């Protein structure tokens, strides 16, 4: 059994990862700015706080096996996810924990050799700031010293509560290139994304790497 400290527990990805972790018998410290949306249940310890409070991160990380980051890339209250990476890396190193990040699809390549999805002409302008911020987080993780272990999971292009889908347990894993199906669609449901994410916790196969998951 692993102990997960999950930042962003009330969000879409955070809720699904919590459910999958509990399904496998893991312990989850569920961190959110407001814990009112966290139902009390066995295996979950709600904790109110923010990833942008360095002292809080250091305290919450004690005894953790994995620090899960399921926070949007866009700035919240003027603070970027990128700004929290140094404190997160320090807490992970101090506790011998891995960092697991719910990433974005925009930094994936459309094919071997690029360009990135975010740089394509069809990528909506309104989503570029968040996608760009998430790409910076990935680069910041790659720049961390070798003793900071992390993984970053980019979902398919279509991922969110608006396209929920069902838990199937059937999906494909890839590396830095966007995965599409035979019809050109790139999609993954929340529950199946969480399966791939927690699989990496149970059986690490992508140390200090980004990987992607799609149908």
TrEMBL record:
Residues 8-157 form the NAD(P)-binding domain. Coiled coil: none annotated. Gene3D superfamilies: NAD(P)-binding Rossmann-like Domain. Pfam families: NAD_binding_10. This is NAD(P)H-binding protein.
